[in-house]
């Protein structure tokens, strides 16, 4: 099995995306769609050239937020899952709050987060973590409880400590689950950073996005979205590659 | 970086060290309503006052809480927002009316032939879904002698006026003359526009306004003084040099549409002060009229003390 | 001779689907130090269950079990337990699977010994294969090796040679007998091969069908070390016969 | 194993939530926190009483959207996963778009969705589906490819059709994964309905939310959020219960 | 007699970890209709691999294999294949596991037959147990039963009786011989038990160590139906001896 586990053939994917863009271009031209309804890819590309520096500047900010937020969210998710799968009481107590954390609309509490935590990096990271941690934590928690009970017993016979059972059995068994969670989180991470900019920011792709949107620069807005998408896909691919490294034994049986 | 670099100060005063850090929170994305603040930052007026002002763009929601809680010392709001805030106990105070008269109104594509509120009958109005908004639309129709129930009020959520009109989903919407109207003209779309402020005194309220909280006014008036001195200077500059002022805004918010900002700035230059004796002045009647309308329509539970909602004390202090 | 394991009146009932299944009933078994004891009995009678109880994997039973004189419920004696399924970890190579007990005990300095054992077990060249890539018998041998490396002086072996051909099986039997003597192990052994039971054991317990209890205890009088000539002796055939009769 | 697979003991969970609310009440009173910064639970409760009818009315709308959106999203996710795990080419082509669909900020394209699809139920359902389908589709796709290859071979020997292999092997093997995805989606579903109201709505909890926010009624806003949370948790619990019914064999080995 | 399976010059090399492992080399085997043929050979030599190739699970081999005269690469003949691992689905009850082939073929009207078989196999009362709740030997019996229900006239059985005790094994052997005659099956059988191979087979192939090829072909002259008396005949012992010698 040489193929990417679940992404499919990257060649075909690329072709599909290119075809999609070409159809989009033809469609907007043939139907003479106004730019403020749906800008043509060429107009968006043009925006990349004219606003290149600016987009680069904002991208750097958002990427920093994304990377920091993703790492923090990951660490938090792992800690949480460890605690939840180790201590039933902790799980009982924390589970509802984990869900609650996802049901509060970030857009609405963004100003409150700012009020509580001030303006700056901290509220942003909080938002990023809120977005990122959940799919990872949930999948990892599920994964950590779907191991082979017989193997656990065997390890217990070997006098393995809880930590050893965890490291040698539960973690390897949870890997597929864990990476599913990571991939979902990867798809959301950049969006999370964008949302985090709602807590009050001076720069970032989210700022660029709203400014171009509210001043009716639809092509610039799409250029911004394109960058968000590209970053998200890159992050997703990165995770998929790491997954491939880790789950090679899955090749057979 | 662009925003993170210290503001260049032509007069040589460098910002940063030793200056008091101030957060100023906007109500929306940066736009020509905010030009004075940007001018004050770029031209070093804030620095001269010993202030280091960060201009923060909020998310999609209002940022009034940030000012009420002093997370940001100053910010932009609007009369309705301050009224609501005060009615629920948030100690916001308006320091200046950025624009003397309401420059918003009802816009529609020319071919719809909507030239007076009477023409609203049988037409589709697209708004974001506020009850106050709906009540106001109905009020102007009623005032003009029409039947408010014949207006079809749709919520188009966050959809933009031009987009929604182009695809025929709405006939008219509430727009800002200095922003949406100019944008439409830029894009070669011809509009009819009915100025809300001219329809009724009640609706000629202040939007936007510069706000702070009571705590600053009572315990830190010097700060308010310093801030407003610089802000006022900024807006005066914008009144006199719209093109250069637009450049100041564009320097710190280069993501905006350049043509739109410049034209909007030219339009607003005469609107900031308009017929008032000095820039920023607020009248009690304006506050009272709109507050009473809100109260009569049960949008606030009790009348608020408008005297406490605004102050002119920090204006014209440069003189 | 010291008693290593003493099982008295062991009973065990599984509760499943509202019905309950009585598997063991008043079972008595005794193992002395350095003894080799086999259990034989019909498929599904409860042999594996006995080993699981000893290994501490089934907690819910009645009766008294002592290991080295201590009640099993109180002690945390570590047996060298080899379950009936090979239970190799699919994500570990054969080598990594074998040395798992060493990893867990933190002993890393037996590389040479392990290498020799791997050769003796005919697994050389397959160290880096994954369990999905080796044959059934090879998996079983890896499992035996892993159990040996658990380094307990009591080994509980659940049909360890079931998937091995005659020749390999003989080799493994010889190895096990060598280990028994050299390392002074005590072995509790499950098998379906009566010949194997007689050849290897000091004592054979024949279990009844469910609910299992001991229906025959047979002490095998052959001296140690044993050799394959015994297999064709009259005594040997008699032992086999007794056991076969008991099973029927 | 009588416990809820991963939720923990519902009694302890409830106690934890109640304790949390009490601490919150005490905190706001002791520190004299202003209502517009953080309303006390009692103030929020009071809002439930005074705005009860209104909240009920808006809730009905949002619940309808949620249920419809969840079901549609589920169906869409299942179809997609089936196609993606059956046809490599389809997977290659569709995978990038699946990720892309998550990287476009809904708040930004909400107006465009309205422009493209008009005002009404359709754009709302599109938004709900966008939010809901992704975690399900991703997890299910992963799950559908983590079955026992030996069992697949056995089924092939039995001349099982692709459909039979799918129904009898891949699907049961994917269940744990599938339910993880469902749970994530359940936590997001109500939020998705709220977001869908950005495409233009007259009523719904999202409308109530923005209205109370813009008119500075923070307690009402929190009451609204509380309802969103309760619905989300109920949906989550429902999914967990269904999961328990399905995965009972997991009890042992 | 018609040739059922003909394997000519079969070679198979596994490519793993950059190294390649030659498992089968120029192997020739022939099965006639209604014949019972056993394969014996050292553990890991490639017996299971031969069955996997026949069953169509390994596509990458060289040599010619015909089934009923047709090349196996072209035909989609459905064997009754029982793999070495029991491979029951953990989420299905024993009963549901057993009737899997019936479900797949869409035949639902053999309830009574299945019930009788379950009794004959000693699995009655365990129909609603999950595979994790039955013993190793019971799993194996469920596997045999499932294979039988695949209803093919050629059965490929990979150590089907490995985990069974002597008595149960005899019962199963009898059943298999009965099936052979009543249902006119052709059986290719892997075992490690030489006695079993001789008792059941018309022909026994002895395979060499890796790379496996046939080192001995032994035709067993006993008539059918067979009975257990044969086991103590001199001829039987001779057959056993020949095979054992070939293995060494
Ligand atoms: N978890 C369980 N739940 C219910 N019944 C069980 C469970 N585990 C084992 N049993 C039952 O206990 C009985 C004995 O099982 P055990 O595995 O001990 O048999 P065994 O003697 O080892 O058989 P074999 O020789 O076939 O391996 C079987 O009938 C089995 O169905
Ligand atoms: N997928 C694979 N990749 C690499 N090598 C393999 C693979 N499958 C089997 N082998 C190798 O092929 C050889 C033969 O395996 P096979 O399972 O056919 O042996 P066997 O004769 O059935 O042995 P046993 O009697 O122990 O079951 C073994 O050495 C094994 O390591
Ligand atoms: Mg057993
Ligand atoms: Mg084999």
Q: What is the third-level CATH name, the topology of the largest domain in chain C? A: Rossmann fold
Q: Could you list the spans of chain C in which at least 5 consecutive residues all have pLDDT below 50?
A: none
The pLDDT mean of chain A sits at: 88
Ligand list: adenosine-5'-triphosphate, magnesium ion
CATH architecture label name of chain A: Orthogonal Bundle
CATH class of chain A: Mainly Alpha
CATH superfamily of chain A: MetI-like
Question: In angstroms, what separates the terminal alpha carbons of chain A?
Answer: 13 Å
The description of the largest β-sheet of chain A is: none
CATH superfamily of the largest domain in chain C: P-loop containing nucleotide triphosphate hydrolases
- Say how many strands of chain A there are: 0
Q: Give the strand content of chain C.
A: 25-35%
Number of helices of chain C: 8
Rg over alpha carbons of chain C = 18 Å
- The chain-level mean pLDDT of chain C equals 91
What is the gist of this entry?
The complex is a heteropentamer, with two copies of chain A (253 residues), one copy of chain B (319 residues) and two copies of chain C (248 residues). With 253 residues, chain A is mainly α.
Outline the structure in words:
The complex is a heteropentamer, with 2 copies of chain A (about 250 residues), 1 copy of chain B (about 325 residues) and 2 copies of chain C (about 250 residues). By secondary structure, chain A is mostly helical. Helix content of chain A is about 80%, strand content about 0%. Chain A has 10 helices and no strands. Chain A has helices spanning about 10-30, 40-50, 50-85, 90-105, 105-115, 120-145, 150-155, 160-195, 205-215, 220-245. In chain A, helix 3 packs antiparallel against helix 4, helix 5 crosses helix 6 (about 120-145) and helix 9 runs antiparallel to helix 10. Chain A is globular. In chain B, helix 1 (about 35-40) crosses helix 10 (about 220-240), helix 1 (about 35-40) crosses helix 11 and helix 10 (about 220-240) packs across helix 11. The longest helix of chain B has 20 residues, at about 220-240. Chain B has about 325 residues and is of the alpha/beta class. In chain B, strands 2-1-3-10-4 form a 5-stranded mixed sheet, with helices on both faces. Chain B has a 5-stranded mixed sheet with strand order 7-6-8-5-9. Chain B contains 14 helices and 10 strands. Chain B has helices at about 35-40, 45-50, 65-70, 80-85, 130-145, 160-165, 175-185, 195-200, 215-220, 220-240, 240-250, 260-270, 285-295, 305-310; strands spanning about 20-25, 50-55, 75, 90-95, 105-110, 125, 150-155, 170-175, 190-195, 210-215. Chain C is α/β, with parallel strands linked by helices and about 250 residues long. Chain C has 2 domains: about 5-80 and about 155-245, Rossmann fold; about 90-150, no CATH class. Chain C has a 6-stranded mixed sheet, with helices on both faces. In chain C, helix 7 (about 195-200) crosses helix 8 (about 235-245). The radius of gyration of chain C is 18 Å and the shape is globular. The mean pLDDT of chain C is about 90. Classes of the chains: A mainly alpha (about 250), B alpha/beta (about 325), C alpha/beta (about 250). The interface of A and C includes residues 151, 154, 158, 172 and 250 of A. One adenosine-5'-triphosphate sits at the interface of chains C and E. One adenosine-5'-triphosphate sits at the interface of chains E and C.
